[in-house]
Design goal:
Blueprint (H helix, E strand, L loop, with lengths): L2 E8 L3 H11 L4 H8 L6 H4 L1 H7 L8 E9 L9 E13 L2 E12 L4 E10 L33 H6 L5 E3 L3 E2 L2 H8 L11 H6 L9 H16 L9 E6 L8 E11 L3 E10 L2 E11 L3 H14 L1
């Protein structure tokens, strides 16, 4: 450990964006606006580490557990991106095997677009003996927070949000047909699309993939904050708590938990009734502290 994983292309074409829309159903105006404007929905980058891992290993039966993701800039449809990284650690907890993958997504010029640390569960069904592998979770450092932006169109909206502000979406029904549409033809993990495979993996029904569940929360954020509000240095720490099954209605919620001169803090969730399915902590930079320093110097010069 760590084990280097060769770079693989990231799917950024219109069909990938359309699968995100199909996975959300008919009510996703903010994400649709992003796609209509020629941009890839950010949730497509959430799967970068797992896409990298699945290009080198068999992942059927596995599920997301946690994603720590930093988004550096908006991505245009059909941009040429690659994701590379390493299998940083493996550990066993409650007889389940977990993997942690560090990844970096870059554009054709080598500039970083996103970085992530992904913890995935190799199999939902417990197997093996507890403690069969080293608990080397500490060997993988989280991805760095990106440089803070000097300015972008959504800063006025972000700057106006006060602590305690809450936002709630209408419940969104997740169905097997939506899961199949979101996964598309490259079905590397049929627990999301095939009832028989899901049962064999220890699940009662097919479940929505991690990015698929997150897309409901991101649609709410796009709608309330602006389509690119997360794409200028936001850091997401997402934990999937319990599965979202075929037939579940998911309610996404966001609350502003804190703010400072430089950062807006949010907590988001996705719930099925009273059951928590996903929890996300989000840090959005409000400006580059260096820009404030330059502004102060400029005012002194003007004086």
């Amino acid at each position: 450990m760590p084990l280097r994983l060769e770079a693989v292309p990231v799917e950024t074409d219109l069909s990938r964006a359309q699968r995100t829309l199909a996975g959300l159903g008919s009510d996703c105006p903010a994400t649709k606006t992003l796609v209509d404007d020629g941009y890839l929905p950010p949730e497509a980058l959430v799967a970068g580490s797992v896409h990298l891992l699945s290009s080198h290993y068999e992942i059927a039966g596995g599920i997301y557990a946690r994603e720590q993701l930093t988004l550096l800039r908006p991505v245009r449809l059909d941009e040429q991106l690659v994701v590379s990284g390493s299998l940083a650690s493996r550990f066993v907890k409650r007889k389940r095997l977990y993997r942690q993958v560090l990844s970096t997504t870059r554009d054709r010029d080598g500039h970083t677009v996103a970085s992530s640390r992904t913890t995935s569960l190799g199999r939902f069904r417990p197997q093996g003996r507890r403690g069969a592998m080293n608990l080397d979770r500490g060997s993988a450092e989280p991805p760095p927070i990106s440089p803070r932006p000097e300015n972008h169109d959504h800063l006025p909206t972000l700057g106006s949000l006060s602590e305690g502000r809450s936002m709630t979406a209408s419940p969104r029904l997740y169905t097997l047909s939506m899961m199949q549409a979101e996964t598309g033809p490259d079905d590397r993990n049929p627990i999301h699309t095939d009832p028989a495979v899901a049962r064999a993996a220890g699940l009662a029904k097919p479940i929505a993939g991690g990015p698929h569940v997150l897309s409901s929360l991101l649609e709410l954020l796009h709608l309330e904050l602006g389509g690119h509000a997360l794409s200028h240095g936001a850091h997401l720490d997402v934990r999937w708590i319990s599965p979202v099954e075929d037939g579940d209605a998911v309610t996404a919620r966001v609350v502003v938990t804190g703010r400072s001169v430089t950062t807006l803090s949010l907590e988001g969730s996705a719930s099925v009734g009273e059951r928590l399915a996903m929890l996300a902590r989000i840090e959005i930079p409000l400006h580059d502290p260096r820009s404030r320093q330059r502004a102060e110097i400029s005012r002194e010069v003007d004086a």
